[in-house]
Amino acid sequence: MSTDNTSNKTVVTSYAHAPTRTITAGGVTYAYRELGPKGGIPVVFFVHLAATLDNWDPRIVDPIATNRHVITFDNRGVGSSTGTVPDSIEAMADDAYTFIKALGFDTIDIFSFSLGGMIAQDLVVKHPDLVRKLVLTGTGPRGGKNIDTIVATTYYDILRATLTRKDPKEFLFFKRNAAGKPAARAFVNRLKERTVDRDKDISMKGFRTQLKAIQRYGRSAPSDLSTLTQPTLIANGDNDRMVPTVLSEDLHRRIKDSELVIYPDSGHGGIFQFHQEFAPLSAEFLGR
After folding, report:
1. Which of 12, 175, 204, 233 has its CA 20 to 30 A from that of 243?
2. 108 and 70 Cβ atoms separated by less than 8 Å
3. Pairing of β 28-35 and β 70-73
C-alpha cells in the first residue's frame, strides 16, 4: 500500500493544480493526477468516452479530495498514456487493474462515469476484493437494453455540435432546454479552469475504437451483478439520451442494496448539472 507522510500544508486539494505524473506497467506508461490527503483507501476515478484527465468536473473532484486521496488516470492509448486503445471493455478493465496494482494499492473505492462505469463493473466482477465502494454514474450493465445505440447518438450529436460550433458534450450530456443550456455552458467552462499542463485530446482512431468496444459491451451477455457485495451508489439524470436512464434503474435492481439517485429535468450529465447536490452526497457515501 502506498503511503505518504507529507504534511497537510502541502496537500493539493484543487484538481486544477494537481500535477500530472506517470507510471509504467505492462509496457504502458499511464498518465495520472492525484490530489487530496494521502493515506487510507484512495478513490480512483474512471472517466467517460473520449475523455482525458482534463474532462473531470472540478466541482465533483475537489469536494471528494477534501478528505480523500483522489487519483484520475488516462486509459491506455488515451491522452498522455502510451499504447493503443483496447477494442473491448474487459481489456480496459485489465489495464485499470494493472495501473492500480502498479501504484501499490490492494483496496480502492471507485468513482465512475459513463464508459468508466462499464470498465468499473468489469473490474469489480473480475477482482471483487480490490474494490470496497462503487459509484456508478451515467452508465449501464453489460448487455443492457439499447447500449449499442450510443454510437449513433454520439455521431448525431457531434454533427449537431459541429454545425453550431459548440462542444459536443453540450448536446450529449445536457438537455437543450432552459435548465440544460446554461448548465452545459457552465460545465464546459469549468473544464477549462486548468490552464497549465493540459492533456492531449484522444485521437479519432482511439475514439472510434472506444465506441466499438461500447457497442460490443452492449451486445454481450450480461455479467452476474448479483455477486456484488460492495456498497454502490448509482446516479443519473432522468432523461439520459446516451446511456438511457432505465439502465441506471436496471443496475439498481441487479446490485443488491444499491442506492439510486435520479436528478430531474437533466440528461447524461445530470451529476454535473446538479453538482451542488451530488458532490456532497457522493463524498458522504464514500466517507461512510
Report:
1. 204
2. no
3. antiparallel
**Cell numbers standing for residue 21:** 505524473
Domain limits for position 272: 14-287
Chain-centre distance for alpha carbon 214: 14
Beta bridge partners of 45: 72, 111
Rounded alpha-carbon distances, angstroms, from residue 275 to 62, 132, 163, 266? 11, 23, 29, 12
**Is the separation of the CB atoms in 170 and 276 below 8 Å?**
no
What is the maximum span of the chain, computed from C-alpha positions, in angstroms?
51
HSE-CB for 261 with a 13 A CA cutoff = 18
249 part of a folded domain: yes
Residues written for the chain: 288
Residue 105 near residue 208, CB atoms below 8 Å:
no
Report pLDDT digits (tens) over 178-203.
Answer: 999 999 999 999 999 999 999 999 99
Residues 66-101: pLDDT tens digits? 999 999 999 999 999 999 999 999 999 999 999 999
In a domain, 55, yes or no: yes
274/264 Cα distance (integer angstroms): 9
Instruction: Note if the pTM is more than 0.70.
Output: yes
Check if the beta carbon of residue 151 is closer than 8 Å to that of residue 211: yes
Q: Does 54 reside within a domain?
A: yes
Task: Establish if 101 belongs to a structural domain.
Answer: yes
CA dihedral 175, 178, 180, 184 (to 10 degrees): 120
The residue assigned the cell 463524498 is: 283
